[in-house]
Specification:
The chain is mainly alpha-helical. 77% of the residues lie in helices and 0% in strands.
Length: 555
């Protein structure tokens, strides 16, 4: 990797060509900045790693949309702050703030100057305007020269110096207003020495692997789509980016699932290496074929050599086709142990999604386990169907027929396990997932006391379900059509079907917003519209990345 390449060049290489090494280099360069900023705010090493993971996942998702003149360090810093604030608020609601504060106190610097500055630093940085904040980040967080700061800001060295000095004075004023008096030289020395600390060893590889694969396979995108993007970001852990699963953790489960997440992150690293190896094999075959073609043109007047080279070209074409016909995901899942690990993660995700159904049906533990096994197997089979459908370039009609047959077989298995009434409740529960989860996830944005929120949540869920049925009828779709984009695998296998589902979801949310003004406040309506818009954007990106990951590499 070229060390002289700037951040935006690397980002363009990743966004345009899918160059994972470029993204890994971006993570390596900026991880310490992101992790340190996160750590100061969330006050927990584990949560700081989660924030860093989320920030770089956002970067991978938004890479193509960043403007050419963006200063990446400033962008990452702002996203880190917003993400960390969300995490802190979440943890406060779950009454974990005291525990996290204790953990952070143990990590505070022994330096008296830094000990005074650190708790207020990120709030002080947030109070600066964008240009001043960028100047301080480049000069003292990343220890750039004034010339580098000037280039990034599009100014001269002298102007950059004035800009940095003015920003430092504003930081000092911020601290002084809060009872912390510190000189300019002491402040800048403390920030330069302590603001960016080395992140935990191995986190670069973990984040690079998970971020570039996140959403690129059914696993991560289902997590994002169901928990973090379709509805609203809540406490989520993407335990394995190459499997379809949801791993939402409650406060009481935080410690255990964090350890499991770390273990699965380590298992993900060799999978990423396999994907990169597959891409290198394809590139080598392409380069060798190109070289032989050139040589053939040079010796076209020598029949013996021509026949020999044509034979080599035939072999190379077969080799290239053999590599290119495989998808990145199929290369990974060819390993039995890896597939088994992925399947276990699916079961964990389905256990979460269908926990309420098991409770309603009063299933025994062994029945619950059998149901979750059926669901996990269904997901893994769907991955295989999607991969083959993309390989064979099947039409949307053929894809619909494949999945209809698969779903019929699944329903037969559920009926055999739970009986006819159990099957009816299963299909109803699955059909209502979008409406029930929308209400549940949007509840934190509602105002009023507990009873008022509960009532608004019920009305919102009912409105979603009512408008959804209207939209399904208008689209000529059956009433049990799965409307959560990442739980209906047709959307990955067929771009046409995916766009139809996204349009259906968008229309539904728009109609809900139009009728929700009778029970939502004006502020709540604004938040709901933002909520719906974000759902469409992130699901579209997730479906695209899934499709690319499962399609043959040559395509």
């Amino acid at each position: 990797m070229d060390d002289d390449a700037n951040d935006m060049d690397l980002l363009r290489r990743f966004a345009g060509d899918g160059e994972q090494e470029a993204f890994a280099e971006l993570v390596r360069r900026n991880l310490n900045l992101v992790h340190s900023a996160a750590l100061r705010q969330v006050r927990s090493p584990q949560l700081a790693e989660d924030v860093a993971q989320s920030v770089f996942t956002d970067l991978a998702r938004d890479a193509a949309r960043l403007k050419p003149g963006t200063v990446l360090a400033a962008w990452l810093y702002q996203v880190t702050r917003r993400t960390a604030i969300d995490v802190v608020r979440r943890e406060a609601r779950r009454q974990l703030r005291e525990q996290v504060a204790v953990e952070m106190n143990a990590m505070n610097s022994t330096s008296s100057d830094w000990a005074q500055v650190e708790p207020l630093l990120d709030d002080a940085m947030a109070a600066l305007d964008d240009t001043d904040r960028t100047a301080v980040l480049l000069r003292y967080f990343e220890n750039k020269s004034l010339r580098d700061v000037g280039v990034a800001l599009g100014t001269s060295d002298d102007t950059a110096q004035k800009r940095v000095s003015r920003a430092v004075d504003r930081l000092r004023d911020f601290f002084a207003q809060r009872g912390v008096t510190v000189g300019a030289s002491v402040l800048t020395a403390a920030v330069a020495a302590n603001a960016v600390q080395a992140a935990p060893a191995g986190l670069v590889l973990t984040i690079s692997a998970a971020s570039t694969l996140a959403g690129a396979t059914v696993a991560a995108t289902t997590v994002k789509a169901i928990a973090m993007t379709i509805l609203k970001k809540i406490a989520v852990t993407t335990a394995l980016a190459a499997a379809v699963g949801v791993a939402l953790y409650e406060a009481r489960q935080l410690t255990a699932l964090s350890k499991e997440n770390q273990r699965l992150h380590q298992q993900l690293l060799p999978l990423t290496a396999q994907v990169q190896q597959l891409q290198r094999e394809r590139d080598r075959a392409t380069n060798r074929l190109s070289a032989v073609t050139t040589e053939l043109a040079d010796v076209s007047k020598q029949p013996t050599e021509v026949f020999k080279l044509r034979g080599q070209m035939g072999v190379l074409r077969q080799e290239k086709d053999a590599v290119g016909s495989k998808s990145a995901l199929s290369k990974i899942t060819a390993d039995p142990e890896t597939r088994k690990m992925m399947r276990e993660q699916q079961k964990a995700g389905m256990t979460y999604i269908y926990a309420e159904l098991a409770k309603r049906l009063q299933l025994k533990p062994e029945q619950t386990g059998q149901l979750n096994d059926l669901l996990a197997d269904h997901v893994m089979e769907s991955i295989d169907v999607i991969t083959q459908a993309l390989h064979d370039n099947r039409s949307s009609t053929e894809i619909d027929r494949l999945f209809s047959a698969q779903e019929a077989a699944m329903h037969a298995q559920v009926a055999a396990l739970l009986g006819p009434d159990g099957l009816t409740q299963y299909t109803d529960y699955s059909r209502l997932l979008l409406s029930s989860l929308t209400g549940a996830q949007f509840e934190d944005s509602l105002t009023g006391d507990k009873d008022a929120k509960t009532e608004k949540r019920k009305k919102l869920s009912n409105a979603v379900q009512d408008e959804l049925q209207v939209a399904l009828v208008a689209a000529g779709l059956p009433p049990d059509y799965q409307t959560m984009p990442m739980l209906n695998f047709r959307n990955i296998a067929s771009e046409e079907t995916g766009e139809r589902s996204l349009k259906l979801l968008g229309n539904t949310y728009a109609r809900v917003a139009a009728r929700a003004n009778v029970f939502l406040t004006a502020e709540e309506l604004v938040k709901f519209n933002e909520f719906g818009k974000k759902a469409i954007e992130n699901n579209r990106a997730a479906l695209l990345m899934n499709r690319k990951m499962m399609a043959p590499i040559s395509k």
